[in-house]
Every structure is written in C-alpha cells, then in structure tokens.
Design a protein that fits this description.
Layout: E1 7-11, H1 15-27, E2 32-37, E3 41-43, H2 47-50, H3 58-61, E4 62-64, E5 74-77, E6 80-84, E7 89-92, E8 97-99, E9 102-105, E10 110-111, E11 128-129, H4 134-145, E12 150-156, H5 166-180, E13 187-192, H6 202-214, E14 218-220, E15 225-229, E16 234-237, E17 242-244, E18 247-251, E19 254-255, H7 258-262, E20 293-295, H8 308-326, E21 339-346, E22 349-355, E23 363-368, E24 372-376, H9 381-398, E25 415-416, H10 424-427
Parallel strand pairs: 1-2, 1-9, 2-5, 9-20, 11-18, 12-13, 12-18, 13-14
Antiparallel strand pairs: 3-4, 6-7, 7-8, 10-19, 15-16, 16-17, 21-22, 23-24, 23-25
Helix pairs in contact: 1-8
Length: 431
C-alpha cells in the first residue's frame, strides 16, 4: 500500500520561506514541499540601505529565486487570494487550488505609503523617498546625488517595520556621506520618530541617542505623522507639529500581506498571530485553532525585530519542532526572540546589538566569549566589514540552509549584564 507523503505548503520565497523549503528537504526528505511566490526575484534586502551611497550595486542585491531553492521543491508562481484554513487549502488569484497538510506563511511585510495621506504623489521617489524597496533605493541614490544641501529628514511612520535599526543606519551613513561630499555644513540632518528615543530597547536607545547627538542630528521624538504635505514640503503630526524638509527619507507604514486579512488569520496590520515561542498560529477571539499553520519571518506578529536574524533563528526552532511533529511527538523547542543586528555608524565602522524577548542589548563579545571577534554595542571596523561580508554568507550559506554555527538561543556568555556606561564616548567607540 502506497503512503502519500505529507504535503508542506510554503507561502513566500523570501529569507524565511527559502530557508524552510531547503531545510525540510534535508531533515524530512520524503515530504512533498511546494513554495508559492509572485515572481522569480529574490533581493538581498539589507543591500537596499547601501545602494543610495554606492556601497552595493543593483547586481549584488538581486538574484533569481530558483538558484537558491532545492530542486526537489515544486515552485508555483502566482498571487495568493486566500487561505481556506478549514479546508486545508490555498486558493490563488488565478483560481489554482493547493492542498496542504502543513502550511507555513512566510509572505513578509511591505511598505504601504498609501496608508499615510499625502505620502504618495508627484514627489514620491523624488523629494519623498524610501529605501525599503529596490526601486526606492535606486531612486534615492539618484536624488541624493543631486542634493546640494538643506533639510534632510529621516522619518519613521509607525512600528513595527522591517529592520528597525535601518533608519538610524541611514542617518549615520548620510552624515558620513555628506561630510565626504562637503555638504554637511550646508545640511540640517533631522531624525523623526514616533518613539520617545532613538530605539525601542532603552539601553540601546540611550547609546544610539548619544551617537545622534555627537553627529549634531536633530531628533524629533513622539511624532505620530498625520499627513505629508508635498506642496509645502512638511510632515504634520496629529498634535499639529510640523517638520519641514527639502529631502525626505521616510519609512512608510509596514503591513503584512492582504491575503492574511482575507483569510482571517492576522491582526490589524495583517501579521499572522502566532505563539511567540513556536511560531504556531494562535487564533484570536473565537477563531478556530489550526495547529497545522505556522508563520515565520516578517509575516508573523512576533514581539521582536522584523529582521533576517529573527527569521534565521526562528526557522531553526521551527525545523526542530517540525521533525518532532512528523514523528508524532510534541514540540519541545522554544524560540526566545533572539535577534542580532549590525548598526552601521559611518566612517567605516559599525556596532552590533544582540538581544531577545527578555534581555536588553549588552556590551561584550560575539560569538566567542572574550574573543569575539565582533564587539557588542561598540563601534569597530571589524563589525563594519562583517556586515559587508554577510551578503556573501547570505547567498551562499544562509539561503541554501547550510549551518552557520550559531545557536538559535541567545547566550549570555561573553556579555556584561551591568550594561554599557552612560557616556557615549566610553561605550560605543572602539577601544
């Protein structure tokens, strides 16, 4: 008697979805894996930050998806219309129906400038810019090259959004770029945030706030944008404050895929509601349970950063649990919210944050205690070079699902629980 292999359906071929498909073939080779995505384009999204400054080229950022997906995976090109969770099937916009036994939603998050009045218009990708899409990053490269001074405003609409340190990194890199091009004295650099400080984590916020202050960046906090007036070139907040700009670099509201809303699986921003330790769908209100559904990467409403490291570590935990489920055992592996993020600080240096659900970013060394070679919450040239080198690791090891030698759980080894000193000059500068 022939047994039908379990069917795993993955929605989304970004970082998380690609890793899942590749890793499942390694640990459950008999499973039938299908991956759905709208096209064959895979971008190294951290490279978007660097393209406006000429530090990455478009060719270094963009590849074909199929090059990185195990050939045993069936790839379906199309747009998802909805998930029929009760019927254990996914319906595509062209009417195609895909059945599954287990479903992974890895459809990511998308900038939605249409959600802020006035953000889209004639000035979009001209005087009003973003670097969270391939096209936006290229447009910003050209607009920055034509900039001759004035008010350069970096703005965050609302949390959560992809890579929460990226607007800070852009600000630091812009400060450095403006100095290199003799424009810093002619430019007022402004950082506008809905937060009460530079970052979500208090320790890191304090230190990064010092970094902005040292670079003479004006910080406008608690700014909840109501609209963008492109004609007057001002941001307006709900409390009637105004921030004028000559060149605006904004982080639009981020939202999950629309099909998540249509399927009744998400929160108010279309992120799939999940158990933060297992990434298993967690129904809200009177919604029915569907333990066969998981969400990974930016598509999930995990209370941590929407970052590639979170996708990496959470996928590792998911794969271990999936193997247990495949053998009829309960899931015992738990994701702790581990994230590590390089923060480009300009002048060829960067610092590194390492934290999880419960633990603040601390000083110390990573990944080897006392050795590093990466420094936590301290600027160093090696941190910067490591971030640049990660593009090679991403294409050649992370996406194919090869082991990187990093455990998904955060380790306190090599960290200093007392935290960094208050003074920026003592804490973040390279020793």
């Amino acid at each position: 008697m022939t047994t039908t292999p379990p069917r795993l359906l993955v929605l989304g071929g970004g970082t998380a979805g690609t890793m899942v498909a590749n890793k499942v073939h390694k640990v459950l080779p008999d499973w039938d894996v299908t991956l759905v995505d709208r096209d064959d384009v895979h971008d190294y999204q951290p490279g978007y930050l660097f393209m406006p400054f000429g530090m990455n080229t478009p060719e270094q950022v963009r590849r074909s998806k199929r090059r990185f997906i195990d050939p045993a995976t069936r790839i379906v090109t199309g747009e998802v219309d909805r998930v029929d969770a009760d019927g254990r099937r996914v319906v595509l916009e062209d009417g195609t129906v895909l059945d599954y036994d287990h479903l992974v939603i890895a459809s990511g998050t998308t900038p939605r400038p249409d959600q802020t009045p006035g953000m889209l218009g004639e000035g979009w990708h001209k005087s009003v810019n973003e670097f969270y899409t391939f096209e936006g990053s290229l447009a910003l490269r050209d607009n920055l090259a034509a900039f001759e001074g004035g008010r350069l405003v970096v703005h965050i609409t609302e949390l959560p959004f992809k890579c929460p340190v990226a607007p800070l990194e852009f600000t630091f890199l812009a400060d450095d770029w403006l100095r290199q091009h003799g424009l810093r004295e002619r430019t007022e650099l402004v950082f506008v945030t809905p937060l009460d400080g530079a970052f979500t984590k208090p320790v890191a916020s304090r230190e990064l706030g010092h970094a902005l202050e040292e670079r003479h960046v004006t910080v406008e906090t608690d700014f909840m944008v109501e609209s963008v007036d492109q004609e007057a070139k001002v941001l307006r907040s709900y409390d009637e404050r105004e921030v004028p700009y000559d060149l605006l670099v904004t982080v639009p509201l981020n939202m999950g895929a629309d099909f998540v809303e249509r399927s009744g699986l998400g929160d108010e921003l279309n992120y799939v509601t999940v158990d933060k330790h297992t990434m298993q769908y967690l129904p809200q209100g009177d919604r029915p349970a569907h333990p066969e559904i998981f969400a990974l990467g930016d598509a999930a409403n995990l209370p941590t950063s929407k970052a590639g490291s979170v996708a990496h570590f959470s996928v590792e935990v998911f794969i271990d649990n999936l193997v247990q489920l495949a053998h009829g055992r309960p899931m015992t592996h738990s994701f702790d919210g581990h994230a590590n993020c390089f923060v480009e600080s300009g002048h060829g240096k960067a610092l590194l944050l390492d934290f999880n659900y419960e633990t603040e970013p601390l000083t110390g060394t990573f990944p080897v205690p006392g050795v590093g070679p990466l420094r936590l919450l301290k600027e160093s040239r090696f941190n910067h070079l490591s971030k640049l080198a990660f593009r090679h690791i991403y294409w050649n090891a992370l996406l194919p699902g090869r082991p990187l030698g990093l455990k998904p759980q955060m380790s306190m080894a090599g960290k200093h629980p007392e935290g960094p000193p208050a003074a920026m000059s003592a804490s973040m500068r390279e020793e």
